[in-house]
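fyi for ur records
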Amino acid sequence: MAARVSSAGGFIRSIAISLLVAGSATALAGEKPFDMIRGARIQGVVITPQIGFKLETVKSSLVGFGMSGRAGEEVLQKFGVPDPAFRLREGFLAGLGKDHTGEVQLSPDARTDDDADSFKKAFGEGFVLDFRTRIWRLMYSAGKKHHRYEYWGRARLVRLADSKVVWNETCKFLGDAPKTAGADEDMLANDAALLRATMNMAVDRCVTDLSQRFAGH
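which gave:
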């Protein structure tokens, strides 16, 4: 689906989707981050979410979850829904192209520490691309009988030589869940298939947007 980006770089509009993009690129003037990593060693890292998954709904299918302050966490655990930042990382790195960078390694587990100095101690040389879920929440509109989903995904490029964050952007997504054929929208039916599809839709939008920004578009 085509999208339009304003010259200020802060607002993307597409049909039924609002995608707000904010962040500050801190790459050196005249040097795109995409060019900085050409042929370099890259470590792909996921940082644990800034806040937990928020479940804001009174749908009958979620009773037992929705009444608890830990509802979001309980849903994720019950259905094995992963942190979207892992999908964000895989999609973003795949978009770089297999021949653009040198060695690319993926840390299997999420890290709690995103300090640049700790990256240098852990990985030594090259660059780190880290990805973090900042906000993720599911909301239900009783009037429209439909769910909306908000997702903020952050990506950063850290140069290990001087422990410097040289690029830092956050994609902000707010949009409707995919439409279903049935009148009753059950986000948890079929192993939470609709919840997963909604989260994946948001992340994939952010992959596209952050990749374009990384390339300097």
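The chain has one domain: 17-26+41-178+189-214. thats all i got for now
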